[in-house]
Amino acid sequence: MEELKKDTPPTLLVVDDNDTLLQLMDMLLTHYGANVLLARSGEEALAVARSRPIDLVILDVMMPGMDGIEVASELKREAPLLPIILLTAKGDLKTRAKAMALGVNEFITKPVYNRDLIDRVQTHVATRRWEKQLARAADAAERFCAPPETLPHKA
Fold this sequence. Notes:
The chain is of the alpha/beta class. It has 5 helices and 5 strands. The termini are far apart.
C-alpha cells in the first residue's frame, strides 16, 4: 500500500466513542503517514474541526449525544467539500440514504478492513488536494487576467 503523504501529510479526524477503535485507527493511519486527530464525541469533533484545517473525517454513526449523522450534517454545512467517511456497525439502508443525501462520501460497515479503509482515504485525500490545487489555480488565473471593463475599447 502506498503512503498517504505526498508532500505534506494529510490531517485526518477520527471520531468514535470506542477508545480501542480510536487507538487502532490512530496506529493504522499514522503508519501510512497521516497526522491523526482523535475525538470521542460529536461535540468534540466539531470543536477540533473548527480549530484547524482537516483533510478528511472518519466518523462513527452511533455515538451517545450527537450521533454521526448530526455531526456530518454540521460539518457539511460548514465545509461542503470536506470528505467524510461514515463507519457503522449495521448496514441500515435508511441511515445510509440519509448520510448520502448530506453529501457523505463513503459509508463503511464495520468490521473495517485496513486495506479498504486506506484505499478510500487515499482516494479522498488525493481528490481533496486536487480540488484545492484547482481552486488556487483559478484564483491565480483570476488575478492575472484583466477583467473586460479594464481593457481598452476601440471606437
